[in-house]
Design goal:
The chain has 799 residues and is α/β, with parallel strands linked by helices. The protein is built from 29 helices and 21 strands.
Length: 799
Amino acid sequence: MEKDSRALLKHAFASRILVVDGAMGTMIQSLRLKAEDFGGEGFEGCNEYLNITRPDLIRAIHDDYLRAGADIISTNSFGCAPYVLGEYGLSERAHEITLAAAKIAREARDAFASDQPRFVAGAMGPSTKTITVTGGITFDQVTEAYYIQANALIQGGVDILLLETSQDTLNVKAAAIGILRAQRERGADLPFMVSGTIEPMGSMLAGQGVEAFYVSLEHLNLFSIGLNCATGPEFMTDHIRSLAGLATCYVTVYPNAGLPDENGHYEETPQSLAKKLERFVESGWANAVGGCCGTTPRHIKALTEMVSGKSPRTPVEQQVAAVSGIEVLYPNEDTRPVLVGERTNVIGSRKFKELSVRGQFEEAAEIGRAQVKGGAQVLDVCLANPDRDEAADMDRFMGFITKKVKAPLMIDSTDSRVIEIALKHCQGKSIINSINLEDGEERFEQVAPLIKKYGAAVVVGTIDDDPKQGMGVTRQRKLAIAERSFTLLTEKYGIPARDIIFDALVFPVGTGDENYIGSAVETIEGIRLIKQRFPMCKTILGVSNVSFGLPPAGREVLNAVFLYHATKAGLDYAIVNTERLERYATIPEHERKLAEDLLFWRTDQAEGGDPIAAFAAFYKTKQKAPKTPAKQLSLDERLARYIVEGSKDGLIDDLELKRRAATPLEIINGPLMAGMDEVGRLFNDNKLIVAEVLQSAEAMKAAVSYLERFMEKTESANKGKFLLATVKGDVHDIGKNLVEIILGNNGFRVVNLGIKVPPEDLIAAYREHRPDLIGLSGLLVKSAQQMVVTAEDFANAGV
């Protein structure tokens, strides 16, 4: 059956909903075993050792689950990692104990396989140590431990390799490398299934949510992915729905029998568990269901009856482009351009370089945290100092930065060994920066295996090995190199198109180098051509290179104007200094013209016919043209401008002045909302990017927060209770917070749940607070759909 197990299992998953067995630990505990059953004093509680000392008991449990109708039984090898068994002095016997577990389950399966195909899943648990949370274990040690387990399970004849109750995605990545190595060495091709555990707080122990978990592991080409343990089915609803909407593989779910009470008793009966999982099945979210802690053969029998005749979920056909750190990031039309912070880079930041030279890597990581706070959505990390050991520096720095930021990381190095060291620290799906064809396919050959091994997207520069014109300067050359790179990466190296990010290259336009005259417009148009030719791929630019060599006062202006035009052409990622990013919309018209003359090389419009000279002269004589002085603006105009510019400098002082003539609510509804209206207009005209809109929202929030303390709350009888929340997946809350203030000051009680609130939290809050009205907030396009989903969950919960 080994040769046919993948085909049989695939057919079974495609044609019906399978049932996975219930809890092994619960069944063992019900036997009330004594020390001698475990092999004597010191081995009590080592359930896996029962494979050696009492194989009859383990076989009987498997038989009970098979009689109940289980299609898949899991081996009694959950804790067989050598370092876990080492707690009982059994680490050297890991292979033996795991092999015994496989053989016992295999014998049980064979005895029940006559009526319909049954399958044995070689179960490997999370172990007692995680790289990210507990420490005390290295990536390579985890890899070796799971290699040993998988080797024994394959030898023992299992049909499936199952990594379950996963709590740390970095452990899963390390384990997967060991598991796949065992498969290769034994010539096996067993289905590989992964099941994670989302805790009641809504994430795995190591911090990732279910979407980041999936995105981080999609490179493994899993047979299935799912969730088990931790909670009962109700708390899994939104997570499983999200997973079902993403996964191109099958989805499994086997929850606990609810949450245990103070006496350790689980709340879900066989019938109630089946009833709650029935929604998952009927909604088309699951291909296999089962039970974890607290479940018994009675639960499995009820599930078997419930799924009979019901249709399985159809996997998603196409994966979407995404990267992740602790949190997932989807670069799409709503969010272009994604801002990549450039200051955790020894080339881009003198301060970062100095801290790394002094070995102050924790302080250096704080620069990364500040960038994220300042708007960076990805961090570019480069430790390539020729005077230091790049590999050692990268290893130390990554140990800090991965604990300080949730954003995805861009690993910037030309050394594949350094890249691999960095990837061993990343739970998420990072970006590798960068590869190109300058030396033929050498860099592709070095880096492509790392992309497939660890999971990553990759930046591909438009440079090739043409001896006369290696770098793509013209739009046609950029496209030609992109086409060659795309064909090699997708067809020869097996890299998905969605994981390719083309760098169309930015050249300095103000140095006078004739080779780069007009290069800015070629880059802009090159992006447009690449996006049209490869819509699944993304694009990126290191923006600040365009202004190299120009007066400092003008560089940020030129960068901002260039970014504006590149974004309109289709730019997805922009490497910038997020803390000094100028706003295109607030650049004076004359300065904007100087920048555009230079970028588009408009000699007929430039002063003196030389765009470089005109630009440089302006910023040498004027340290940047001042905007309209504040004293020339009315107080209302100044208040509106704070919002438009996303600035808080002077905001509070002017609010105090305005309070002498108007009430707080009049100020909010007047000049402050006028500012927000202008922000909306500029955004709709593509003159502000999302990150700038968010800065404006922060300024508005600061203003409202200050004014709130001066508002008089209505003292009349309470008019009712509102429950407000920003929906799951959205962090924008300025509108919601304004509504809260207005309602609160007009006699209503308001419960504000904050941002990124999943439906189950809203339902729990409804049951606790019993509001008269619920308000849902969100800014993103996908938030509207999330509101529909939330409303559906309300209906199912009887809200």
